[in-house]
Amino acid sequence: MAKNNDTVSTVKTVDEKAPQALTITITDGNGKSWGTAIAVSKQFSTGSTGFYGSGKLVNPENPAARYQLGINLILIGSKG
């Protein structure tokens, strides 16, 4: 049986110039705003870093139609 002596080298990616928070604006295809959410920097339980945000959005054409938003932005290669 052949042995695999290759070692996997992992380098954790870090974005030192990332802000502490992002403002995310959701618009439809016509440019109408459905709302905004704030995503704050986060260290996820998986070991990755990035941003997490949540909020509620309203259909501008039907204010009775409300939506819940959850968003993760993960820095690629940050799990290391």
Low-pLDDT runs of 5+ residues are none
The share of residues in extended strands comes to over 45%
Instruction: Please trace the helix and strand order, writing H or E for each element.
Output: EEEE
The strands making up the biggest β-sheet line up spatially as: 1-2-3-4
Mean pLDDT: 90
The largest sheet, given as strand count, sense and whether it forms a barrel, is: 4 strands, antiparallel
**Helical amount:** under 10%
SSE inventory with pairings:
Elements: E1 21-27, E2 33-43, E3 49-59, E4 62-74
Antiparallel strand pairs: 1-2, 2-3, 3-4
Structure description:
This protein has strands at residues 21-27, 33-43, 49-59, 62-74. The chain is 0% helix and 52% strand. The chain has a four-stranded antiparallel β-sheet, with no helix packed on it. The protein has a domain at 21-74. The chain is built from no helices and four strands. The two termini are 30 Å apart. With 80 residues, the chain is mostly beta strands.
Name the features:
80 residues, mainly beta, four-stranded antiparallel β-sheet
In short:
With 80 residues, the chain is mainly β.
